Amino acid sequence: MLRRKIMMPISIVTFLTIITMAGLVPSVARNNSAPGSIVKVRKNKAGNWQLIANGVPYVVKGVCFGPSKVGEDPNIATLRDWATVDDNDNGKIDCAYDTFVDKNLNNRKDPDEQVVGDFQLMKEMGVNTIRLYHHASSAEEIKPVYNNETVRLAYDHPSNNVLLRELYKDYGIMTMAGDFLGAQTNGSAADWEVGTDYRDPQQRKNMLISVKRMVIDFRDEPFLLMYCLGNECDLAISRTNARIYSVDFAKFANEAAKLVHILDPNHPVVLCLSGGVSSSMLEILSQYAPAVDIIGINYYSSTGKFGDIWSRIKKKWDKPIVVTEYGSLVLPQSPTYEDRQLKYHQNSWQDIEASFAGGKRAGNGVGGFIFDWVDNWWQNGEPESHNGLNEFCGVTTQGAGQLSPYLRQLRKVYFYYQEVWPGRKIIYDK
Fold first, then answer.
1. Which pLDDT belongs to residue 384?
2. Are strands 407-410 and 56-58 parallel, antiparallel or unpaired?
3. How confident is the model at residue 147, as a pLDDT?
4. 404-413 mean pLDDT
């Protein structure tokens, strides 16, 4: 993808012994009392794909969700896990429940601007899924897998599954849980300068530890939609050698996907690649990674359209596709920025809709995730300043930043999705 990559191995919750290289899987106690979701992929006689969640066809109307307070930055070890932050000490997670809409854009909280919370705002927009990475861990055994101590704030605690249950129960929003699978050396414990090596037995073992912990933590949860492995591992910028040793990468991705299925047969596995994934990589994956259920694509273009990605992938690797990231990377250099962002998203969602089963395209699309829910100021290396391409992708903004993380200003694109992703509509001024 196009945004700045961070040197940030992000950790996972408690450790259980990993499968051995001989393929042995230790028994693990499960919480069978939890009413966990059941999600499958289905291909019909016409060759079209669908996602089926709890017996019902499901289209992903998603956002990448990782709000942060202005000034925090993972690169200097100040970024906290949003699911733990309660700075106003009211017993509620700030971004989930305490944000408000600055309707008149004056960067103040006026008397008529009531607290609503991001969870409610997403519901009103029509969001049904968030994408997040499985960060948190309080187990000593897993910390060596994440060898960068600067990320302790992001992982030195259990995963807040109670909050994600509330997100699903009260707002109808499910979660796609992700593991980096070595991207930016997350989970592999590789040296940053060298990058993740998919041929290295110890690094592979480390990554499987991380994947396994994710599954153990989420597999019985009602909010879980699916798992996502990797994040553009096929790009050199992701600090891996997947492009050079594609067969080794494909075999390892298959091993990780098989592990997920052994531990949890009720949820599909996505492998996240770049929008520019090569035909040769797709052919290798189709041969060596059959355990992967869904292809994830992070796709950014100048217009928002996806070109021939649907048919090109179908020819090389016939799997359903979810767009794991898409969004406008246009600098707000003029008052027309929001209009350009809106047009971009209109092109993107119309293209995604056309990819659905029975649509005009290849019938292999199952939805997509917008990048990003809210502008995060740290993404261009100056967390106190709002600048650069990566910091203006949000459906919402934090305004001038003084009331971060509570203030939200809704961009025009929010109201577009409120129309095409029907939710309970509350019309805020725009």
1. 87
2. unpaired
3. 60
4. 97
Helix H segments across 264-316?
279-288, 309-316
Residue ranges of E strands in 180-320: 224-229, 269-274, 294-298
Coarse DSSP helix, strand, coil percentages of the chain, rounded to the nearest 5 percent: 30, 15, 50
**CB-based contact 259:207 (threshold 8 Å):** no
Token readout for 1 is 């993808």
Q: Which tops the pLDDT comparison, 384 or 428?
A: 384
Determine if residue 88 is left, alpha or beta; phi over 0 gives left, psi from -120 to 50 gives alpha, anything else beta. alpha
Q: Which two tokens stand for residue 10?
A: 């992000």
Strands 224-229 and 100-101: unpaired
Q: Which two tokens stand for residue 174?
A: 């499910």
State mean pLDDT over 209-214.
Answer: 91
- Token pair for 154: 């992001």
pLDDT of residue 387: 81
Q: What CATH number was assigned to the domain covering residues 60-420?
A: 3.20.20.80
Q: What is the end-to-end Cα distance of the chain in Å, rounded?
A: 31
CA distance 242 to 75: 24
136 touches 153 (CB < 8 A): no
pLDDT at 197 over 70: yes
User: pLDDT tens digits for 26-78?
Assistant: 333 344 455 799 999 999 999 999 999 999 999 999 999 999 999 998 888 88
Q: What angle do CA 28, 29, 31 make, to 5 degrees?
A: 135
Number of H helices, E strands in the chain: 10, 14
Per DSSP bridges, beta strands 294-298 and 321-326 are parallel
Residue type, 253: A
Q: Give residue 28's pLDDT.
A: 35
Q: What is the mean pLDDT of residues 289-315?
A: 95
C-alpha to C-alpha distance for 371 and 295, rounded to whole angstroms: 17
CA atoms within 13 A on the CB side of 342: 16
The neighbour count for residue 203, using CB atoms within 10 Å, is 21
Residues whose CB is less than 8 angstroms from the CB of residue 246 and which lie 6 or more positions away in sequence, other chains included: 280, 281, 284
pLDDT over 80 at 16, yes or no:
no
Q: Residues 299, 300, 302, 303: is their CA dihedral positive or negative?
A: positive
| Nearest in space to 40 (alpha carbons), one of 233, 174, 225 | 225
**Contact in structure between 240 and 182 (CB atoms under 8 Å):** yes
Residues 268-286, mean pLDDT to the nearest whole number? 97
